[in-house]
Amino acid sequence: MTRTIEQAKELIESLRPIQEDETSDYTFPCPRCGHDCMDKNPVRNALSRRVDVYICNECGREEAILDMLGKEPLPLNQWAMVLGFDNEGEDDDQLFDEQRCRVCGCTWDNACEGGCYWVEDDLCSKCAEKMQEEKRL
Fold it and tell me: Which of 74, 80, 75 is CA-nearest to residue 96?
């Protein structure tokens, strides 16, 4: 079952009170990317620009960069938390296929030297810059 954007938003925002619960000793993975990189103290993470929930700093940067470039945000029904609920019981390898650059093969966990960010779903900023330079020559 694929959720609507509104249903996904409601599900994602239900996490915020749990993230801020000081009595809990559990740190949830990032609801956007699904990686285990969230700080235990919620305010040390990024607050999403799309929904009222904390996300990891990498996802916060990506949201800001996409806004700056005028690109469409990752739809809420494609966030890792939503996919995890919608595909419960399916093979985890299929759920979270790692984003990979079609040119150099870099990923979130193995970025280009000096760092990079996603300009398209399968193209990193370093390769996009190289492609632009090649077009100018």
Answer: 80
